[in-house]
Amino acid sequence: MSDPRGNAARYWARQTDKSDAEAAPAPMQLTAENKHEFVETAIQVAIRRGEFDDLPGAGKPLEGLGTHHDPDWWIRRKIETENLTGLGPPALMLRTEDRELNDQLDTLSHESDVRDVLEDFNKRVVDARRQLMGGPPVVTRTRDVDAEIAAWRERRASAMTAAVAEEPAPSSTQARRRSWFRRG
């Protein structure tokens, strides 16, 4: 490995004429006055060597540069790239959960499970309304458990009839095979 300060000092010495190089001290001391010169020299040397060629995203605009300044841009980007869920104030999390609750209920197969999920959701909504932590107001409504269970039953029944209607009728060869096996 080479010393970048030494390389910069040698480069600087080659660029100046011999009389100035003899008068300058041998090792280049990094001070506040010549710090920008050192950095600029190192950048120029790297450019000449081609170290900045073929960088990812070269010639493309920077992502996330909008018209407004968002001080929390870095945490938003981290949440998006890591696909993190469950982060945020309770008011926003409950709104998101409320939007997706019917789909979650449709995956359940027992009425008692649906009732448990709805009661838990209602309890968390009431708890979020009671807390005085600040943040956005909780505007999510509690759900009527009996009405939601009735709607769940209807969605489940309509899904069952749709599945039965889409089931193809057995072909004649399948019917013959079935009857042949039954006789034997």
Task: Give the secondary structure arrangement, pairings included.
Blueprint: H1 4-15, H2 18-23, H3 35-49, H4 73-82, H5 90-106, H6 111-130, H7 145-166, H8 172-183
Structural write-up:
It is built from eight helices and no strands. With 184 residues, the chain is mainly alpha-helical. Among the domains are: 4-49, no CATH class; 90-166. It starts with a helix and ends with a helix. The mean pLDDT is 80.
Question: Which structural traits does this protein have?
Answer:
184 residues, elongated, mainly alpha, single chain
Residue stretches low in confidence (pLDDT < 50, at least 5 long) are none
Proportion of beta-strand residues: under 5%
* Coarse structural class: mainly alpha
Give the helix proportion (percent range).
55-70%
What is the gist of this entry?
With 184 residues, the chain is an all-alpha fold. The protein has eight helices and no strands.
